[in-house]
Design goal:
single chain, alpha/beta, eight-stranded mixed beta sheet, six-stranded parallel beta sheet, 14 strands, 46% helix
Length: 392
């Protein structure tokens, strides 16, 4: 089989350790092609387990969408006609638009292609929680029509959680087959024993992910200010890429206004191995998102044996068992979040027991041994549709 993934992910050359492992595993299923973005403004083309065709990372999101919607279909169509790609995998309904254009164009030229559209999050609302959007009503209308058009031409759907599955089924034509399995997680790195012992007096809380409004970090800072006032030893680490510079500036200004500069540290994006080290050193992991498809980082923290404090949204509620592997709070509830953070830090034995249960849950939730067969089953179904000539 020859499969092409289209998505907004960014790839460096060579691939980082985690991504390399992912595509090494997927390469066992066929010839893999990837259309994504480079880490800078220079387009790239290279092969490492898969064949990567990377678009330039332009500075503004609308320009990146425009690049994907124009160059993406041209590249994908070329791969279909010249390289024999017959299965397209769009990694969100928006990239699905580019893939659907490719499918239609290939059909006009006599080449049948099967389209799989995946959803890794709340594609209806999350875009508006990444950054401030100019003309939001117009933007929403355009994106809704883009997603609807893509889902109309999808042959198969893939969700990563019950929440994303329900959303796909609500927006796609009735009867589309849906496959559900979690996103790739390099769980082995996080299951490794810590290199250094944990400071028994350390009260470190950790967040890791992109620094955007969607993640609810402004609520976390307000909650942490209350925690720090009663627990002077508490520390908060915010790890991640400043995808929204204006929001990061607001967060740092908030830290100063709240008088917690010496207790909060911003750390830029780190490797998975470095992240595992930070997780192993913290007391608990916090994900106060306002929307979340599943929260892969939750599984990573659990694999490190840490309890997780997460919002009651999306797929988070599917992996955190209240009081057993972590605790859940209403999204945006500063008082509840502060109370839960304080409890975790002041009940180390109970928190440790939660962490041990969380580790066992994570160990069984994701594995390469299940991830590859899930994709294999989906690709076989896509190939079956091709063989039956049922593609549109």
């Amino acid at each position: 089989m020859k499969i092409c993934f289209l998505g907004g992910a960014r790839y460096g050359q060579p691939l980082d350790e985690t991504t390399e492992k992912k595509f090494r595993a997927l390469a066992t299923l066929g010839d893999i092609y990837v259309i994504g973005f480079a880490t800078d403004w220079r387009p790239k083309c290279f092969s490492q387990h898969a064949h990567f065709y990377l678009l330039p990372k332009l500075p503004f999101p609308p320009l990146r969408y425009l690049t994907m919607f124009t160059l993406g279909p041209a590249l994908a169509l070329w791969l279909c006609l010249r390289k024999g790609v017959r299965i397209l995998v769009a990694q969100s309904p928006y990239e699905g638009f580019a893939a659907a254009v490719t499918k239609k164009a290939a059909g006009w030229l006599g080449t049948k292609v099967t389209l799989i559209v995946e959803s890794h999050g709340d594609f209806e609302e999350s875009l508006f929680l990444y950054r401030r959007v100019q003309a939001p009503s117009l933007y929403r209308a355009l994106m809704e029509r883009t997603a609807a058009w893509a889902l109309c031409y999808a042959d198969l759907l893939r969700a990563i959680s019950h929440a994303t599955r329900f959303q796909l089924e609500a927006n796609a034509p009735e009867g589309r087959p849906v496959f559900q399995f979690p996103a790739w997680t390099d769980i082995d790195i996080f299951l490794e024993p810590p290199e250094h012992g944990i400071d028994p007096n350390g009260n470190i809380l950790l967040y890791a992910g992109v620094l955007i409004p969607l993640k609810g970090l402004h609520f976390l800072l307000r909650a942490f200010e209350r925690v720090a006032s009663s627990l002077p030893s508490a520390r908060l680490l915010l790890v991640g890429s400043p995808e929204n510079p204006s929001y990061v500036h607001e967060l740092k200004s908030m830290v100063e206004r709240l008088g917690i500069e010496e207790k909060v540290e911003f750390i830029d994006e780190v490797s998975q191995r470095e992240l595992a080290g930070l997780m192993q050193a913290c007391r608990a992991f916090v994900l106060p998102s306002l929307s979340e498809g599943l929260g892969r980082v939750i599984l990573e923290a659990m694999a490190c044996g840490k309890p997780v404090i997460g919002s009651k949204v999306g797929g988070i509620i599917e992996v955190i068992e209240e009081g057993q592997t972590g605790v859940l709070i209403p999204p945006g509830d500063v008082e509840a979040l502060a109370e839960r953070l304080t409890w975790i830090l002041t009940h180390p034995e109970e928190a440790g027991a939660m962490g041990r249960r969380a580790r066992e849950f994570a160990r069984g939730f994701f594995s390469i041994d299940s991830y590859v067969p899930f994709y294999s089953s989906m690709f076989k179904e896509a190939q079956k549709l091709l063989d039956e000539g049922s593609s549109k």
